[in-house]
Design brief:
The structure is a homodimer. By secondary structure, chain A is an alpha+beta fold. Chain A folds into 3 domains: about 280 residues, Spore Coat Polysaccharide Biosynthesis Protein SpsA, Chain A, CATH 3.90.550.10; about 80 residues, no CATH class; about 100 residues, Jelly Rolls. Chain A has 12 helices and 28 strands. In chain A, the strands form 7 sheets. In chain A, strands 18-19-20-27-22-25 form a 6-stranded antiparallel β-sheet, with helices on one face. In chain A, strands 6-9-7-8-10 form a 5-stranded mixed beta barrel. The longest helix of chain A is centred in the N-terminal third of the chain and has 16 residues. At the A-B interface, strand 15, strand 16, strand 17 and helix 12 of A face strand 15, strand 16, strand 17 and helix 12 of B. Strand 17 of chain A pairs parallel with strand 15 of chain B, so a sheet runs across the interface.
Chain lengths: ~475, ~475
């Protein structure tokens, strides 16, 4: 812990920018347009966003952490970071415009508070193992960035991966820091094998570290229009005028990646040879690389019986998936749709999603919505022992007074105001506040307000069926079942 | 039609015995222990049992038709033959004991009414094409049977099938009738190819025609214990004492097939070389032989999008099945379970069902049951535009007065008594009676009795969701949704 304490001391200038704006077509049908990968628990107990935030708490001070997301995802980000971050740490872009505008906005905001700030920029939906190696890499990258470098994190490959871009390391600058010889697009299998043998080729992780001032200088040089757009509203950033100003800026700027816009052109780019384990979790097949496998090389999650399966990935959200003789296949089962695909073709899930649009099956691109007298709910995710619902109550609507034998519920208000009865207590919870209802405690949820009440409900317990609702009284008059 | 009229005239002695007692593990998860293949619409608009009955209406008089089934399936048989047969045509074995006892019972009952009766015996769950060829085959077999032969129907193979038993035809008796040279077990691929080339080998279809007197003589000779058991209760057959007498007999007899018990031993067996198309529909893979395929050789039924599939069978009961690159696979999706299996391994679905038992997943062997305040229901089958429910109302229970915009409902009472409100009319329906509720007509179902009311509900319409229930008043107080 001394090393970390020391780093915290040293790096009071170190900020983190987590980019959480990605769309989720590759993990369809579990991810949906409005519920992308970073919000899913596919790699463990926590969502990918939660794991990312947790990992970075070891690296920077909480007040130096920022999540940049888009309006359509900001509710979900607030919900998932409720326990770990204050809401002011979430920056909302009116719309996603790829990484360059997001990084420019973050840099302008951070530099305004601290001229000497350094920014560690990274995606919210990657899987990283080896915390000590990660922290060491950040520390070393920070030194190079302090000297004016744009440091990209290159991960040492352990297989001839064709799904990643590569960075070829050139001459050594210092210990694990090298000049960039070239950025290389995703290779074919033969080149990927050659890269692995060569040793100078590193996976381009999409993680960067630079001084806010350095990246802004480079954006000014290589993306002058973008720079000008944000510098025009710099004074409004961090004030009440920011949201309106951003709307104006975003309507006029084009989507561009920081890689293409700056890094592939700048003379200040270096690459850090990082020793931590990393995956971009770019497809269902990636679970085979990062999750524990059985003796036959299968990753099986959820309710499933597989006879003679080999090298396959089976994910069930609750229904039974039963298979015979699966070989190198991916099967994903959710409440309204099932995907079956050979592992080597998972990249085509995106095309499949396009095909669903063409076939008039758009409803399968959004989470499944269930209507109720008091409003509606959407099951965002369901797995062994837990279920996450997005619940919307109409103004003045009121659920029955009820209790559950087998499940506890955690409620987080993301919009509107809730009136809650919990046991004999009655109280209100506001946006960004939460409450917890243990099993066997009678409770009622009500929307006393004039606008829809939106809450995220996390149920946990051994049995999560709609049949475990004991109704004590109900304005809709229902005495059993259906929340 | 002259030919058929003539046959009807000629064959006033011809009876039909349809055996409808089979269990349904091979079509899991669509078929379940209590809902086997013969009750499913897998090959067309009608269930296999319905198609079988319809086909035979062209061959025998309705009063000469008999369905022999077991107690556990008799409700389903009554329901599915409601429009086509009178209930007295259904004979119920207390328990299934393979084909020999069923045929013996049928023969005793039929001979009691008509000493000269001939019996065409056939399974309820086979697929037959070519009605004229079928009727011609029956006609020719009847001539041979009249002369004292036990005629088995052998189908001319059109492929080297390894899933069927064969009958080798010996010397010709007359036109398409031959002595049986031998019965042959399912061959391996090499022998099956040789059989196809040879031409003397016919598929053993499990269809027979004989005089009741002939088969009883042969049963007496080769299965004397079985003969004795039934002859002991012959006087009670066709009287009120029959059910009790059968219980006694069936507790003491062992399960045996007519093939093994009689046909493979008798000297009177001949084989009819039949020209109709036939499949025993023994597995999901058989759909590939009998259903229409797309250009890539796929059979796709229900809600499904398949990119680049070849030679595959995809069946969805309602949820979306989306696939990429399926090759010679079977995918079957139902409300609570999904099966994925290579076509060449569909025979192992039986083993998979065994494995489910071992894994404590017995609930997936029965249809999915949903509890309600008034009782429960089970969705027996769901497909494009229709849904079949088995509904059970507790004594004195009453559903809400309701209507549906998009669906009509057909109700058949299989047990108990129903009080029905339909529009402004109120009436009762008894066991084996039915009523029809068009869409937009208000209706209510009630159990006025002291025993559970069981009905089969067939819904049809464009939209069959639980959300299309407009409640007008409800003793459970529910005002919207949930029937």
């Amino acid at each position: 812990m001394t090393a970390r304490k020391e780093m915290n001391k040293k790096n009071k200038n170190l900020h983190v920018v987590i980019m959480a704006g990605g769309k989720g077509t590759r993990f369809w049908p579990l991810s949906r347009e409005t519920f992308p990968k970073q919000f899913l628990k596919i790699t463990g107990e926590k969502t990918m966003l939660e794991s990312t935030v947790e990992r970075l708490h070891g690296v920077v001070r909480p007040e130096n952490m920022m999540i940049i997301t888009t309006a359509s995802q900001s509710d979900l980000v607030r919900w998932q970071t409720k326990e770990t971050l204050t809401p002011d740490r979430i920056v909302v872009e009116p719309e996603g415009r790829n990484t360059a505008p997001a990084i420019a906005l973050a840099a302008f905001k951070i530099r305004k508070k601290n001229k000497d700030a350094m920014m560690l920029v990274l995606p919210s939906d990657h899987h990283i193992t080896g915390r000590a190696a990660f922290e060491a890499a950040v520390s070393e990258a920070a030194s190079a960035a302090a000297a004016g470098s744009l440091v990209t994190f290159g991960v040492v490959p352990d297989r001839p991966e064709t799904g990643y871009g590569y960075i070829k390391a050139g001459t050594r600058v210092k210990k694990n820091v090298f000049r960039v010889s070239s950025f290389v697009e995703k290779p074919d299998a033969g080149r990927a094998r050659a890269f692995l043998k060569d040793g100078a080729y590193l996976w381009n992780s999409g993680i960067f570290l630079f001084k806010a001032q350095t990246i802004l200088n480079e954006i000014k040089k290589y993306m002058p229009a973008l720079y000008k757009a944000f510098s025009g509203i710099e004074k409004k950033l961090g004030t009440d005028l920011e949201p309106g100003a951003l709307k104006g800026v975003y309507s006029g700027i084009k989507a561009e990646s920081i890689d293409y816009g700056v890094l592939e052109k700048s003379k200040r780019v270096s690459v850090l040879r990082a020793g931590f384990g990393w995956s971009d979790v770019g497809s269902w097949s990636a679970l085979g690389e990062i999750m524990e496998k059985d003796e036959a090389g299968n990753v099986v999650l959820g309710n499933s019986v597989n006879m003679g399966a080999e090298g396959s990935i089976v994910f069930s959200s609750g229904r039974l998936v039963a298979s015979i003789g699966l070989k190198d296949m991916v099967v994903v089962d959710t409440s309204d749709a099932t995907l079956i695909c050979p592992r080597e073709r998972v990249q085509e899930v995106k095309d499949l999603v396009d095909k669903l649009k063409e076939s008039g099956k758009q409803e399968f691109l959004l989470p499944k919505r269930e209507e109720r007298p008091w409003g509606h709910f959407v099951v965002l995710e369901k797995g062994p022992g837990y279920q996450i619902k997005h619940i919307c109550l109409k103004p003045k609507a009121r659920l029955s007074l009820q209790m559950h034998n087998h499940r506890s519920e955690h409620w987080i208000v993301v919009s509107g105001i809730a009136k809650v009865q919990k046991g004999d207590e009655v109280f209100y919870i506001n946006k960004n506040e939460s409450t917890y209802i243990p099993n066997t405690v009678k409770h009622r949820l009500e929307n006393p307000g004039m606008i829809p009440l939106k809450i995220i409900e996390i149920q946990s317990g051994e049995h999560l069926g709609e049949d475990d609702i004991i109704r004590l009284d109900d304005i809709y008059g229902r005495t059993e079942q259906q929340s």
